[in-house]
Amino acid sequence: MKNWRLVLLVTLLAACVVDADPTKPALPTATTTTEGTIAPSAPVPSITPPASAPVLPTEPAPQSDSFLSGIQNSLPNDWTLTVITETGKMGHPHGLEEPVFRIDFTDQTRTFITSATELHPYLRLYFYRINDKEKILGIIQQESIYSWDIPTYFAETKEYIIVTSPLYINHGIYTEEAIALFTPLEQALKDYFAACTPTPMQHTSSMGVVESDWHIQQIPVAFQGEWRLQNPDGSPLPDDYKNLVFRLAQLPTDCRILRVENGTLKEAGTMWFASLEGATLKVDFVGQFHLTMGLEIQQKNGQIQGTFNHAGSGAAFYSGAVTLIPYNR
Question: What does residue 209 show for φ and ψ, rounded to 5 degrees?
Fold first, then answer.
């Protein structure tokens, strides 16, 4: 019986040796959860849920750490954030489902007083897939008739539509003091989210101001010029198209569809989309015609050939192979 202390000591030493095995993962130095508060100077944790949290098979990975780091770096002094991703713990405004993830913001260094109670400035944001934007905006409109926990639009990025609720802005308190403490955070976040969302390019033509989606800065030299369209066998296109001239200028802002009228060229459309995929130039025009006119062309056998489409919104007026020939004034 005198040796029981020796046996216990040997057992404990053996356990320490096992735990020191370098092939085993290090034990955490602190308990971690998906709801840990992150100080602005702290590293951004992954927002991947723990293995025990149920995740739908079709659920995309949450936004990258760089996105969260950008949010964290944009926070005004003394504001901290909490990232929540665990299904069943995120909650949602009335009428919506749980988001991809939720972020709570708070400033523990400042308070405002309401009904003799001190509260910290606070904001809760829900992040939904941008693909669900139209559905969510519809729900926001439907829910606006209610007065409790209704969803409201906050901002959006190229990947997320971001929703909050009046209840989750300063705990639903809208005194001048509370709003003054909240406003710097609101502005900082909206500025950051706006920077994450490419602003649509715009250009002005006789068609008015047109939002443009140009993936190239210049039209390749081989495609530049003023072109008419004909069938590959040399026959003209139907009457609606045989008088059209496609001006592919060096700069996308100068590209137009023109119509020959009494020997002169009149502007009929402007180019809103342009991309170069391999050797194929893709351009789409909008203007004084119903639906979009588009070309997908490339150089073949010393000619510019491809397809022409007058289509959109589920309808098609014309689609077929074409050859581009120079327009001679």
Answer: -85, 125
In the predicted model, is pLDDT for residue 198 greater than 70? Answer: no
Q: Which long-range contacts (CB under 8 A, 24 or more apart) does 191-198 make?
A: 191/74, 192/70, 192/71, 192/74, 193/155, 193/156, 193/157, 193/162, 194/155, 196/67, 196/70, 196/157, 196/158, 197/156, 197/157, 197/158, 198/158
DSSP-assigned beta bridge partners for residue 162? 127, 155
Please count the CA atoms within 13 angstroms of the CA of 217 that sit on its side-chain side: 0
pLDDT above 60: residue 65: yes
Residue 165, token pair as written in the block: 């609720």
pLDDT above 70 (res 98): yes
